[in-house]
Amino acid sequence: MVAVTLFIGILAAYGFSRFEFPGKELFNSIVVGVQAIPPIVLLIPYMGMIVAMKLFDTYLALILTYLVMTLPYCILMMTGYFNTLSRELDEAVLVDGGSRWKALWSILVPISLPGMVSVAMYTFMQAWNEYLFALALTQSTSMRTVPIGINLLMGQHGYDWSQMMAMSVLGSVRYWYCSCFSKNILLRACRPEA
Asked: What Rg value do the Cα atoms of the chain yield, rounded?
């Protein structure tokens, strides 16, 4: 899900950053405006749509939900990052006979690695911590996400603290791994070449 969000977000951000087209400001306003809508407002119509498409209690429903929720942020952040990069990089590739596709994937994306890692971490954390849609769009226990699984350990008359804490630690191990991985990438990307 993170890779799909990054791929679509990079393509959209490159378009917003490098091209002028009719309606660009409107599309940009829509992307920003979508971030301002509280997710709870969208829950009932979205759930009705998922049920009508027969995607209830499937991984695809969760993937599509998290993609829709994190894509606007990815587009905004990557557009801002691409705006800081000189357009002369694109022009140099075009003068050498390359295409815009080659300029994006062989020049701009490797330079944008720190921004991509930051967006990927945010996307992962948003999807991993999301509770509302995961609770509403899943029914079977095998489809439940970690935050919902931890919540299910709370009983009506008491809490099983030992199991809740164990699940919390196991749930945070993935965070720890991703932060160590991204820290190493960010440090390598920010280190000056000799």
From this structure: 20
What sections of 19-112 are H helices per DSSP? Answer: 24-36, 39-52, 59-84, 88-95, 100-102, 109-111
**Could you tell me which residue, 7 or 168, shows the higher pLDDT?**
7
Question: For residue 54, what are the contacts with CB-CB under 8 A and spacing of at least 6?
Answer: none
Residue range(s) defining the domain that contains residue 80 = 2-190
Total domains in the chain come to 1
Query: What's 112's domain CATH number?
Result: 1.10.3720.10
> In angstroms, rounded to a whole number, what is the distance separating the alpha carbons of residues 174 and 182?
12
Residues 6+ apart with CB under 8 A from 113: 185, 189
167 contacts 185 by C-beta, under 8 angstroms? no
pLDDT in tens, 20-40: 999 989 998 998 888 888 989
Q: Identify the residue whose tokens are 């849609």.
A: 133
